[in-house]
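pinning this so it doesn't scroll away 📌
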Amino acid sequence: MLAIPGPSRQNLGPIMSDLPLRSTIIGAGHYVPTKVVTNDDLAKLMTTSDEWIQQRSGIKERRFIEHDDIGASDLALPAAKMAIEHAGLQAKDIDAIIFATLSPDYNFPGSGVLLGNLLGLNGVPALDVRNQCSGFLYSLSVADAWVRAGVYKNVLIAGAEVHSTGIELADRGRDVAVLFGDGAGCAIVSRATDPNQGIKALRLHADGVGARDLMVEYPRSRRIPRITKELLDEGVHYPKMVGKQVFRWAVEKMPEVAQQVMDEAKLSVDDLDLFVPHQANMRINQMVGMKLNIPQEKIVHNIEKYGNTTAATIPLGLSEAWREGRCKRGSNILMAAFGAGYTWGGAVITL
């Protein structure tokens, strides 16, 4: 029988201390393209208006990539560099990458290996996570397990999306197209160095009963051929959403999982410094905040300027809030997300 070696602990430094086995986020970064697309800009392409979009979603503008040949890994690169610097590290200190996205540069290979190459981290393992809007929290769970097990010391989580090339900017795709934007957010997960730091609770859930309520149906491997000209003409390669169903599930499941992780972490709303929800819809986040009795000033809202950047929304929001002084080392952060799949999750972390 082959002997399987345990994780190497060579040069892991603080990871061998007597502190509780916890990981935490030690740095965050973000990046959005420079091209601003307002609601009025979209109204020139489809039957809509600034008032209609704001009333429905809270979005005023979003960012799109500036030109052809910019992928999710390209957006993640400056966000990763910012997060690494914020953590007080160098790129060579990163020993694993997790890349959450629903809009990878290519169908395969994954965007994680592309980001690793851009960072010069050749040989460093990279994992892509395809859990859409809850992708960052699923990635955080994997990074947390790796760090606590001593497998890796500094894990880079990237959430990045290029939605603008995959939405239908016309009346047929209007209901979905007005919601999404391009952007990236990154976080560095490492061993907590203070006994109060760390991920105090993290819960993940999924229910495939709602899989068809928010999806891109084609191309798909269960169809021969995967796509045809006729299907392309029908627009089946664009995302489709049953908005009322997604909204109903989100306003039920996000507060439910948020309360679950707060209870597990033994924290009340008064103990929270910041709530960073996924940015899908301003009304959803306001309703979740009301259900949990979280004051609006403690809730991160940036959907009005970026739209829904899916896997990037939570790390992007955290990074901005950190730089604005809304949180700091020692702050108690609540996170929650809901999205396609359906998948959802929540986490409580002390920075």
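📌 and the second one:
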Amino acid sequence: MSQFAPGAVAHHAPGSVEAMAELYRELDTSGATTVVIGGGNHLGIGNPVLADTSVATSGLDAVIDHQPDDLTLTVEAGVTIGTIDELVRPHRQTPALPETEPDATIGGVVAAGVSGFRRNRFGPTRDRVLEVTVVTGDGRVVTGGARVVKNVSGYDLPRLATGSFGALGVIVSVCLKLWPEPESRATVRLDDVADADRLHRPVAVLETEEGAWAYVQGPAAEVASASSVGTIQSDDFTWPTFDEPGTAEMRVPPVLVREAVARLDVPFIAQHGVGVVAIASEDPDVLQPARSW
């Protein structure tokens, strides 16, 4: 899922796992290089790749299995995050995937190892991948993990594939662990980001150049009590976004997030407790001092 540089001479979008495997057997024989494209949201990550052909997962868009009682969902790699959210919402469940990219595909999110703002409470995306199926570069179909919430058998291919950027093969299906939605939730505006330390396990604590917010969920009384540390701005989660695309990230120990933010004079979204600070800039004069620090 690295950045796709112009130069591909062919484009493929197989409509089944079998067709994907057959395609890669042919490409392996020909020696052609490939780049895989999901929703295209994370193509800017990594070094540019000049490939002979591009392979899209858009044809793999089936929902394979949803077991609400077991809190599991299995989908093909081309299914979007927005589609997954719509599917599980009536059951009051959530996959806790990236919140501001509904058109991103689950295959791309897993391959790029991208996590959402709720990582502070629920952990990274890799913690929700129970099973993954990949098509290798020589056309083999390999499955690792199991469609159960607790599983310790076999080699942990799901964690290995998460964030692998296609190095192990094309992710063609994923089984996700789901979370039940709480009774109530809220977005709390903080006068000082340090006030979040008084909350019990907030879902997220975010800061931008415009202020700081804590995101809380649970029983209604518990959520209402969050007003003791700030102003309840919404009875839902409202997430910050950048007006302009194209961002970089600083990743630092969580204890250094406040110091990182103090060094910035451009729009940013900082995840306290996680150690990720997204920067809305591609200016080397901004990025190089941050990198050097």
